[in-house]
Amino acid sequence: MANAHDDHHDHAHDEPAVYPDGELYGVLAEFDTPGELIDAARKVRDAGYTEFDAYSPFPVHGIDEAMGIKRTILPLIVFGGGLTGLIGGVFLQWWMNAYNWPWNIAGKPAWSIPANVPIAFEATILFSVLTTFFGMWILNKLPQVWHPFFRSDRFAKVTDDAFVLGIEAKDRRFDHAATTKLLKDAGAIAIEDVHLEGDPRRKQMPKWITAFIVASTAFALIPFAIAAKARNSHSSEPHIHIFPDMDFQPKYKSDTAMDLFPDGRSNRGAIGGTVARGSLNADDVFYRGIERSESGGAWTTGFPKQLEINDALVKRGQNRYNIYCSACHGFDGRGSGAVPLRVAAGGGAWQARNLVEPGGASVMMPNGQLFNTISNGFNTMMGYANQIPHADRWAIVLYVRALQRSQNAALEDVPADHRGSLR
Amino acid sequence: MSATTTAEGAPGTEHHEESAKAREAFRAVTRDVAWVAEAPKPHKAWLGALGIALIMLGIGVVSIYHLVTTGIGVWGNSNTVGWAWDITNFVWWIGIGHAGTLISAVLFLTRQTWRVSINRAAEAMTIFAVMCALLFPLLHTGRPWFAWWMLPHPNDMGMWPQFRSPLMWDVFAVSTYGLTSILFWYMGLVPDLATFRDRFAAKGDKVRAIIYGLFALGWRGSARNWHRYERAYLILAGLATPLVFSVHSVVSFDFATSQLPGWHTTIFPPYFVAGAIFSGFAMVLTLMLPLRHLFNLQHLIKESHIEAMCKILLATGMMVGLAYGTELFIAWYSGNLYEKFAFANRALGPFWWSYWAMVSCNVLIPQFFWSKKIRTSPVIIFVLCIFVNIGMWFERFVIIATSLARSFLPSNWSYFTPTIWDVGLFIGTLGLFFTMFLLFFRYVPVIAIAEVKGAMPEAHAGGNKDKH
User: Fold this and answer.
1) Which residue of chain A has the CA closest to B179?
2) Which of A72, A102, A212, B157 has its Cβ near the most Cβ atoms within 10 Å?
3) In this complex, do B162 and A136 lie within 8 Å of one another by their Cβ atoms?
4) Would you state the pLDDT for residue A3?
C-alpha cells in the first residue's frame, strides 16, 4: 500500500520524502452530497463498524440516526450545573447576608426570598451556561488542534464543501481492502488512505512551541513570586500607593513630631502663666465644689450662689441624669441600669454604685464631692467634665439629692394633703 | 486508490449536475464571507471608518483619564441629579445589546431561519455594546479600582455585598449576560474559524492559519461533534432567552424599586425590555446596512431579512408607545399628586424638549415602516434607524434626569447640563463600539457560514430519496 497514497504533497516539494509514512491511521472517503453521506454512514454502521465518523461543513440532519449516535447526556449535565448554580446562588446570599454578617437594612428581615430571587436566577443561568459550553467541548474531546486526518488536503475541504466519511484503522472490523470496497460501493467519489507521520523529527512538538510554553509559564509565575516575596520579607519602605486617595496630606496631627518648633512637637500648648479668655474659672465653689478658707479647702455642702434652687433646676437635673447617669446607676439611682443588667445577662456580675443607699457613701458625701465625682470620675466611672457643663453638673447633684430623699421617703415626707391618695 | 472513483455521480448525469450545483453553492457562501478577511488590502471606506472610530476612542481615553484622575465631579452630575448621562448611556448600550441575543436565541428557538445571515454580527454587537455599557457604572463608582469589591469574595475587610440592592442584581445580571454572550458567540464561531484556518492553510499563510487554528480548537466537522454542538447550541439559546429578559428587567429594577415619582412603577420591566429590543434592532440595521452595501453581502443578507427587521421595529416601537401612554394614564388614574406632577413635568417642564424628542423618534418615526416601499429602501431605513437610536437615548435620559431633577422636595430641584466630559466619554464609547465592530468585520467570519449552509435547500441534496 506504500505507493498508493498521495497525501504528502504539501511538503513533498521542499523536503524529499526520505522517511516513509508511518502506519495506516484510517481511510477517508468523499461523497458528493449530504444525502449520500447519510446513506454511506448507514451502510458502514450496518457493516458493524464503530470507529468511524462523518465530517461535513454543517450539521447534516438525519445522520445521527444513520450513524447510530446516541443522544448526548449534555442536557443532564447542564441540569446538574444549573441546580448547583441555583443552590449556590441561594446559599451564597443566605450565608453572606443572613448568617455570617446579618445586615439590618431599614428593619427588613435578614433573610427574605423575594429580594434574593434575581441573583439566584442569574447564578442558575451562569452555571448552566458554563456547564453547557465547557461540557460540550469536553464531551467532544476538543480542543485537539492536531489530528492525523488533517494531513489530507481533501479533509481540509470539509469546512468548505466536502462530505467525508472516515474509518479508523483501529476498528476491529477494519480490513484495508474490504473497507475500501465497502466505501466504494457506498458511492464514494474519492477514497484516500491517511497515514501517521513517519518522520520522527516531525513527530516532535516544534521547539518554538515548547519555548513559548516555558516562557509564558515563567512569566505567569512572576506575580505569584512577587506576592510570595512580599509576604515573607520586611521592608521599611511604605507600600506602593497607586491611588493615593488623599491618604497623604500636608498637615500635622496632634502629638506628632514637627521640626518647625524648638520642642519638636506639632502641639502648641498654652503659654505658661496665661489663661485662655473665658477659661479663668476662678470661682472654686462653682467650678470645683471646694469652699476655700484660711486653713485650706473643704467640699462645699451647699450649692453655688449662682444657681437658684427651684423646681426647674431639679427637672433639668432629672433630664441630664436620665441621659448621662441612668445607663449605669438606673433611673432610681439604685445601681441597676441597663449596663449592669446587660452584664448580668452575659453571665457577669457588676453593679454600679447605689446612690440612694441609706448611710451609703453617696448619701454621706458633701455636695462638692458629688460634683467632683461627676466631673472627674471615680474608680471605673469616667469623668463627665467634657460632656456636661458645670451648671448641669450641679443640677444633677441636686437631682441626686432629690432621689436620695424620694427613694428613702417616709410617710411624714409626703405633704399632709396628699397622704390620702397613697395606697 | 486515491484516484477518483466514479460511482453514481458520473459526469453528464442529472445527479452530477445537482451535486455540482450544491457544492458550488456551499463554496460560494464560504468565498463570499471569507473574502472580507482574505482581501490583502482593506476597503478604503473601512479604513476611513476605522480612523474616525479610533479618533472617537481617543477622545474617550482622554475623558476617562481626566475623569479618573480628577473625580466624577467633572461630569454635570449634582447632588440632585446624581444619575445622568452615565446611567442613561449604560441603559442605552445594554438595550442595544439585547437585539443580538434576541436574534441569536429567541429567533433560533422560534425557527426563524432568516436570522442566520445577521446573527453573527448581531451577537458581536451585543458583546461590544455590553463592554461599552459596563464602562459607565464602573466609572460612576468614582474609584473604579475598587470595583472588585462588588464581587462576593472573602476579604480581610470582612465585607460582603448587600444582595438586597438592585445595583448588586445588576452586577450579577450584566456580568452573566456579558459572559453568556461571549461564550455563545464564540461557540458559534468555532466551525467558521475552522473554515478560515483551512483556507489560510491552503493559501500557505501559516501565521494566520495557526492563529485561526488555535481559536478553532481543532474543529473537524465530525458528525459526533456536531450532534453535541447542536444540542449545546439549543440549550444556550434556551438559557439566553430568559436571561435577556431578566437582564433588562433587573436594569429597570434599579429605578422601579426606588420611591421616586416617575421611577416607582411596575410597568418598567416589560417597558424596558420592549425598548431594548426596539433600540437593538435599530442599531443592527444601522450597522448592517452600510456594511452589507460595502462588502456585497446583498445575497446573504436579503431584502426580506431587512424587511422583517423593519416590521419588528414597527411592532416594538408601538409597544414602547403603548408604555408611554400607559404611564400617562396611570399617572392620571392613580390620583397620586406626585405621580401626576412627575408626568406633567416630563411633558411640559424644563426638559420638555427631551420628552418630545423621545415621543417623535420612538413612536412617530417607526410609523413610516407601515409602507413596504420604505421597508425596502436601505437609505431611508438607515436614516429612520438613526432617529430611533436617538429617541431611545432620550427615553432613558427623560426617565433618569427629569425624575431626579424634580423629586419630592422643591428645595432640591435643579437642572442638568452636561459638561464636555460627559459628551467626551459618550463619544469614546461610540468609538470603542465602532472600532471593535470594524475589527470584527475584517478579521472574524462576519456571517455564520456553517449556519447559512445548513439553512440552504442544498443542505438536503442527494441520498436515497432521489436515487436513480
Assistant:
1) A126
2) A72
3) no
4) 44
